[in-house]
């Protein structure tokens, strides 16, 4: 039986760019170049490693996003994923995470999966809750925030490093996992991989295809509302001195003045 | 008054400080009610602590499931308590697990979800949450428009203030829904004896400039002289010089202490996202062009291996 692995990825504004909000208080996706969320590269990497270890697996990469989000799919395909699914519909614009999870879950059901792999969080919204919401909606176990992951037969196993303890966890497939940036460096696409990706299939789906009512998603369907967005004022320029032998003492004097020592 | 449910995070029989902060914030919104899950013999002591910080009621539940299975048992308990008490809002600490619990509870309750709030206030139509986004370059104020708000709050959002309340304990029977991953082994993290990174008033962090694992000695010495937690940049963690649990940045811990000291850290966006909201920022770096100097209140261009020990000696005074 072929192991069906689905990787959920997000196309995000480059975190090193000048990220801003659009007039409707959604993330501005025009002003800054987008790319495959760095943290999702770890998800793609682990999916590929699990597929390679299994010997009989198919990796499908899935995204929800505007036209340009295809770039994120292409990157994942050039890393080695077999095919891609792009959910794209103007009515999705402004969806909150609850609605997004409904869309992704429907798409996953349509694609079919034994294992869903996600990154630990997006680099724009940074909520880190989509994998848990997918598990809830799909009615399967979540084994999330894993720093190590592997599949043995029909069991997924991994290590979850929490604040208080490091836990070994396991779940029966089908299941949802998310992997951290400690799970292993993501591979760079090879030239061959980039060329091969151009021929790999990308299926497009819209809300009708998924049987989702447009009113249930988007800005109007969101269960949260952004009231105001305010740019943080730049920090006022501080004092900078060059150490000429007394730097530590000067710093101590500053900290004493501020009552820290 | 509406009950505001607070999921009380605890470890080793102790209430963690962020839970006391949540109880303090909950008082702004209504009557705090604590939820204490899987605390075993420590439940009574934890309930008493919650009462000291304003919990009128403490809902407790204990079962092996809370430690044997991941996330879902706590979701079952919190959802069922929220439904039974018709809670006005649910507050959870913004940790990896806390956010996952909150998200699934929100979905089950049909509630909007806000994560990583750094402040909460009562508004005309429910709680208004403040978030710090895009590497702390924007402040966002949001509300929940559907259902009882479920909000996760970052540590250090407020100073915990005692406000003794009845703390009436109500034991709850939870119907577990299953479909969870199982925990087959647990290795408790060995405590460094230093304050928790996300809870500390002072954080001293080392980066690439520290040069080696042994180099963190000067960082730790300064931290101990100041009673501070130790942090590390992603570069230092990736190099294997310091544990990932101490990583400050977008993919590590986000800290907001009174004082942040960055030693040998250039200040890449990934790091800034984790410390930019610190009240006072100090940096020591050899490179006068390092972007970290754009953020500092006080910066020393110099060698951390001479500046830090000198500062440590002064601090020990």
TrEMBL record, chain A:
SUPFAM superfamilies: Adenine nucleotide alpha hydrolases-like (SSF52402). Belongs to the ETF beta-subunit/FixA family. This is Electron transfer flavoprotein subunit beta. Heterodimer of an alpha and a beta subunit. Its cofactor is FAD. The electron transfer flavoprotein serves as a specific electron acceptor for other dehydrogenases. It transfers the electrons to the main respiratory chain via ETF-ubiquinone oxidoreductase (ETF dehydrogenase). The keyword Magnesium does not apply. Keywords: Electron transport, Transport. The keyword Nucleotide-binding does not apply. InterPro entries: ETF_a/b_N (IPR014730), ETF_b (IPR012255), ETF_beta_N (IPR033948), Rossmann-like_a/b/a_fold (IPR014729). SMART domains: ETF. Residues 24-214 form the Electron transfer flavoprotein alpha/beta-subunit N-terminal domain.
TrEMBL record, chain B:
Residues 4-195 form the Electron transfer flavoprotein alpha/beta-subunit N-terminal domain. Transmembrane segments: none annotated. Its cofactor is FAD. Pfam families: ETF (PF01012), ETF_alpha (PF00766). Signal peptide: none annotated. It comes from the Bacteria. SMART domains: ETF (SM00893). InterPro entries: DHS-like_NAD/FAD-binding_dom, ETF_a/b_N, ETF_a/FixB, ETF_asu_C, ETF_asu_C_CS, Rossmann-like_a/b/a_fold. Heterodimer of an alpha and a beta subunit. Belongs to the ETF alpha-subunit/FixB family. The electron transfer flavoprotein serves as a specific electron acceptor for other dehydrogenases. It transfers the electrons to the main respiratory chain via ETF-ubiquinone oxidoreductase (ETF dehydrogenase). This is Electron transfer flavoprotein alpha subunit. It comes from Kitasatospora paracochleata.
């Amino acid at each position: 039986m072929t192991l069906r692995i689905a990787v959920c990825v997000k196309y995000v504004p480059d975190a090193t760019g000048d990220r801003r909000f659009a007039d409707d208080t959604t993330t501005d996706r025009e002003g800054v170049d987008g790319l495959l969320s760095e943290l999702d590269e770890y998800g793609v990497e682990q999916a590929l490693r699990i597929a390679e270890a299994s010997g009989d697996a198919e990796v499908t990469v899935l995204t929800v996003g505007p036209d340009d989000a295809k770039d994120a799919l292409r990157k994942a395909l050039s890393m080695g994923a077999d095919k891609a699914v792009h959910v794209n519909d103007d009515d999705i614009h402004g969806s909150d995470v609850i609605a997004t999870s409904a869309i992704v879950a429907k798409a996953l059901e349509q694609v079919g999966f034994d294992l869903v792999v996600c990154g630990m969080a997006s680099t724009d919204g940074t909520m880190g809750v989509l994998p848990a919401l997918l598990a809830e909606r799909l009615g399967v176990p979540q084994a999330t925030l894993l720093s190590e992951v592997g599949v043995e037969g029909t069991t997924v196993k991994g290590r979850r490093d929490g604040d208080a303890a490091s836990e070994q966890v396991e779940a029966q497939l089908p299941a949802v996992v998310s992997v951290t940036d400690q799970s292993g460096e993501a591979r760079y696409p090879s030239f061959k991989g980039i060329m091969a990706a151009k021929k790999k299939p990308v299926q497009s789906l819209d809300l009708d295809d998924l049987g989702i009512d447009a009113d249930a998603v988007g800005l109007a369907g969101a269960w949260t509302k952004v009231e105001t967005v305010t740019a943080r004022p730049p920090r006022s320029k501080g004092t900078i001195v060059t150490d000429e032998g007394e730097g530590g003492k000067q710093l101590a004097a500053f900290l004493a003045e501020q009552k820290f020592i | 008054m509406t009950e505001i449910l607070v999921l009380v995070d605890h470890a080793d029989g102790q209430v963690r400080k962020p839970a006391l902060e949540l109880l303090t914030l909950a008082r702004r919104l209504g009557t705090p009610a604590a939820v204490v899950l899987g605390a075993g013999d420590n439940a009574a002591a934890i309930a008493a602590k919650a009462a000291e910080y304003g919990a009128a009621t403490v809902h407790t539940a204990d079962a092996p499931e809370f430690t044997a299975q991941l996330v879902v048992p706590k979701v079952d308990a919190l959802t069922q308590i929220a439904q039974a008490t018709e809670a006005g809002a649910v507050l959870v600490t913004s940790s990896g697990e806390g956010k996952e619990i909150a998200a699934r509870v929100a979905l089950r309750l049909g509630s909007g979800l806000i994560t990583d709030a750094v402040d909460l206030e009562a508004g005309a139509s429910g709680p208004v949450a403040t978030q710090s986004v895009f590497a702390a370059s924007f402040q966002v104020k949001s509300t929940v428009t559907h259902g009882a708000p479920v909000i996760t709050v970052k540590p250090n959002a407020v100073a915990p203030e005692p406000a003794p309340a009845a703390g009436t304990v109500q034991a709850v029977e939870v119907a577990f829904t299953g479909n969870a991953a199982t925990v087959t082994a647990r290795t408790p993290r060995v405590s460094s004896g230093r304050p928790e990174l996300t809870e500390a008033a002072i954080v001293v962090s080392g980066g690439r400039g520290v040069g080696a694992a042994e180099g963190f000695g000067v960082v730790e010495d300064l931290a101990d002289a100041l009673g501070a937690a130790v942090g590390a940049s992603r570069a230092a963690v990736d190099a294997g010089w310091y544990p990932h649990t101490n990583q400050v940045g977008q993919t590590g811990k986000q800290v907001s202490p009174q004082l942040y000291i960055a030693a040998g850290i250039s200040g890449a966006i990934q790091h800034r996202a984790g410390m930019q909201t610190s009240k006072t920022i100090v940096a020591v770096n050899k490179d006068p062009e390092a972007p970290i100097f754009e953020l500092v209140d006080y910066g020393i261009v110099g060698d951390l291996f001479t500046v830090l020990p000198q500062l440590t000696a002064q601090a020990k005074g």
